[in-house]
């Protein structure tokens, strides 16, 4: 098999960890596989470099930030290749440029536009284990770029797709994808398998195992991913496309996100195009709006429009919302930042009715009030008071019997 | 003026030093100059990276070593560019590749083959201060290379020549080139000016201010160099070609090198081609031979051949010499590693006779025995017992009145 193995910051966080990674890689190769390794910077290194930048400049340019940040993966790439070679396996370290990762020029959060994997393929053909720097690429004009937080996941999946690998293994410090956060639900169960769509919802709902963009990329290229731990030999979780033969699980997991603030623009006159005006102003400021709820008043003349944003963007969103409220003739803007979003995810929801009602009922039974609801085909999210987060996660995990294998 | 300023490891060794460098650069630009900055890695960083490599592999590959080592200059390049920008001066960080530094593929000690400075020139034209990563380049096939210890000096001089700069300023932690090591001779005088040839002899004789290859490059391209301190505003030493109008100094400086071992191949039968055989074997092992002395025996039938090598190469050289001695029918090899080489340098020697005799006499008067002598047009070197090094430096400094400006 042709396997891409991606190792995150904690997996290459020390000399000992790098040696352990090298042993796993070499053992995979000796079982008859070809392996491309993608590594992140040592854990803490990126934050250290950002700290240095902040100490020389209050507003460092994104282009120079990328020259700086891309140094971290060079170090781990070279050290990992050396460690693999010292076990008797030919190995070559490639930078993002050498790996042919071409991006747009949105420095510090660049998007991959094209991959030219000739050098990778040639090296594999010549019997090398290829070790790539994740998180980085290069623009058409030759400038170094980075892909944003968690970008090494994306590098790994994109490379796997480009070289038509059989599977992309993402090594991290947890055993895989769980039915819920094990810190909150002690009997949370590791999932053997989840669909791309479920993984995507979980990732965007706050489960931290895989970066959202990397899952989107995997869907587009139908690249199976295995999430597993680099600290043991447990089999991990397979993330793959929905299998028609497989029984559809109604609820696969419970996710939560405490990083939510809710803004309500009150008594907006109910005219067509009002919501569009409000949200285009906020989108223009590059703020991600999540849940949106609109309640029309009983007489139909006005509406309250509520929406959630990440807490970090709360003040900026408030400015735009207040300006928009003024322009639209609304009464004002109310804000709450003591909220959490709790969600259940499962492909079986498509065909099972009544899941939402069960969720609301389970929460109500334990006195958890729901402030807003948002649904998609395979997930239901409720906005609740943040203090009920852990309780709600446990209630839903138990109600849907997620501790039992389906 | 178009000025290249190179800052060494101690000059960019901390956030405070980087900020001081930025202020000097911006002040130079505000005086109406265009500036290209070349930086080394933070002092200690390269050794730290080598330590990491040694801890994952007993024999790390040179190619991967270069991927690793080249990360150090990326950090200082980006930080310096950011610090300059924060003072209101547009600034851009370029890697060795972006600066167009093409080298051969002798990893960890690559030679510059070509510089394509289009990107540098374009950035200067657009009003940027260009900050370049020293010490690194790229091969034709796109692999990262480094230029060996002190390689940033070479990067700076080569870039200066390629963009036809008016001068190349080398910033370090000393005030310039001295008549002798100030640690040994308290009244050593900073030279306002030395010729390229004198600088070359001094560099290769152990004065540590400028890397030998960078001086050779400066000679070839007639690029004036100013060696000065980044810790003060003293004017430094101008290294330039000999000026016909300038009075020729007989002796400019005294240099010493304690890192010498002497090997003597005894009673080599005196046949043509014998010396060539001996030294081609040693050169093949990449060992630099310095002083060579051959004494033919009184009956002319055999000769003792002595030569010096760096102490680090002593054991390796001994192996080759013993093999050669056997092959040539010599009696054996004797070795001494308690020696130092002491040298006087000055362009005036070309026209002044008797300088060598004065040197030998001054040393003899203080009981310093001379074991071998080697001369060039502008320098005289003597091999002496290492314990006399400091005495000999002081004696020669005083004898030639180097504390007085000529």
SSE topology:
Two copies of one chain form a homodimer.
Chain A lengths: L1 E6 L7 H16 L3 E6 L5 H12 L5 H8 L1 H15 L5 E4 L6 E3 L8 E4 L2 H8 L3 E5 L2 E3 L5 E3 L4 H12 L4 E6 L20 E3 H9 L7 H10 L3 E5 L7 E4 L12 E17 L4 H11 L7 E5 L5 E9 L3 H15 L3 E14 L9 H11 L4 E7 L2 E7 L3 H11 L7
Parallel strand pairs in A: 1-2, 1-9, 2-6, 3-6, 9-11, 10-12
Antiparallel strand pairs in A: 4-5, 7-8, 11-12, 13-15, 13-16, 14-15, 16-18, 17-18
Helix pairs in contact in A: 1-4, 6-8, 7-8, 9-10
The CATH homologous superfamily of the largest domain in chain A is termed Acetylglutamate kinase-like
What is the β-strand count of chain A? 18
Please state the average pLDDT score of chain A.
Answer: 90
Shape of chain A: globular
Give the radius of gyration of chain A: 23 Å
Distance between the termini of chain A: 30 Å
Largest interface, Cβ cutoff 8 Å: A-B, 43 and 43 residues
* Run of helices and strands of chain A: EHEHHHEEEHEEEHEEHHEEEHEEHEHEEH
Question: In terms of structural class, how would the helical and strand content of chain A be classed?
Answer: alpha/beta
Contiguous helical run count of chain A: 12
Query: Class of the largest domain in chain A in CATH?
Result: Alpha Beta
Verbal overview:
The first copy, chain A, is of the alpha/beta class. Helix content of chain A is 34%, strand content 27%. Chain A has helices spanning 15-30, 45-56, 62-69, 71-85, 118-125, 151-162, 196-204, 212-221, 274-284, 314-328, 355-365, 389-399, and strands at 2-7, 34-39, 91-94, 101-103, 112-115, 129-133, 136-138, 144-146, 167-172, 193-195, 225-229, 237-240, 253-269, 292-296, 302-310, 332-345, 370-376, 379-385. An 8-stranded mixed beta sheet of chain A has the order 3-6-2-1-9-11-12-10, sandwiched between helices. In chain A, a hairpin with an 8-residue loop joins strand 4 and strand 5 (112-115). The longest helix of chain A has 16 residues, at 15-30. Chain A is globular, with a radius of gyration of 23 Å. The interface between A and B is large, with 43 and 43 residues.
């Amino acid at each position: 098999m042709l396997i891409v193995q991606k190792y995150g910051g904690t997996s290459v966080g020390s000399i000992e960890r790098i040696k352990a990674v090298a042993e796993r890689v070499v053992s995979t190769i000796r079982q008859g596989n070809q392996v491309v390794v993608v590594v992140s910077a040592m854990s803490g290194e990126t934050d250290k470099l950002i700290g240095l930048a902040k100490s020389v400049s209050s507003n460092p340019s994104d282009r120079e930030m990328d020259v700086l940040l891309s140094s971290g993966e060079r170090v781990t790439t070279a050290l990992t290749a050396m460690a693999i070679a010292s076990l008797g396996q030919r190995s070559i370290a490639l930078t993002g440029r050498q790996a042919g990762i071409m991006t747009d020029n949105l420095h510090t959060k660049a998007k991959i536009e094209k991959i030219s994997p000739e050098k990778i393929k040639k090296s594999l053909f010549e019997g090398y284990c290829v070790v790539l720097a994740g998180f980085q690429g290069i623009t058409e004009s030759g400038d170094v770029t980075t892909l944003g937080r968690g970008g090494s996941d994306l590098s790994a999946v994109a490379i796997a797709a480009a070289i038509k690998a059989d599977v992309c293994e993402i090594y991290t410090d947890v055993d895989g994808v769980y039915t819920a956060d094990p810190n909150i639900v002690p009997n949370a169960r590791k999932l053997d398998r989840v669909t791309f769509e479920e993984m995507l919802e979980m990732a965007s709902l706050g489960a931290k195992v895989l970066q959202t963009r990397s899952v989107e990329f995997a869907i587009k290229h139908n690249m199976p991913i295995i999430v597993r731990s680099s600290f043991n030999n447990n089999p991990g979780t397979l993330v793959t496309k929905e299998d028609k033969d497989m029984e559809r699980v109604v609820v696969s997991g419970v996710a939560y996100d405490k990083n939510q603030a809710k803004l309500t623009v009150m008594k907006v006159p109910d005219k067509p195009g009002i919501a569009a005006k409000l949200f285009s102003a906020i989108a223009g400021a590059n703020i991600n709006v999540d849940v949106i709820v609109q309640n029309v008043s009983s007489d139909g003349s006005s509406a309250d429009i509520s929406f959630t944003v990440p807490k970090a963007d709360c003040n900026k969103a408030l400015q735009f919302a207040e300006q928009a409220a003024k322009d639209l003739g609304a009464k004002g803007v109310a804000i709450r930042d003591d909220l959490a979003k709790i969600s259940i995810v499962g492909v079986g929801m498509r065909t099972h009715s009544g899941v939402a009602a069960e969720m609301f009922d389970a929460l109500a039974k334990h006195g958890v009030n729901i402030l807003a609801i948002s649904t998609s085909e395979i997930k239901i999210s409720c906005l609740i008071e943040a203090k009920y987060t852990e309780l709600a996660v446990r209630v839903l995990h138990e109600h849907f019997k997620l501790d039992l294998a389906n």
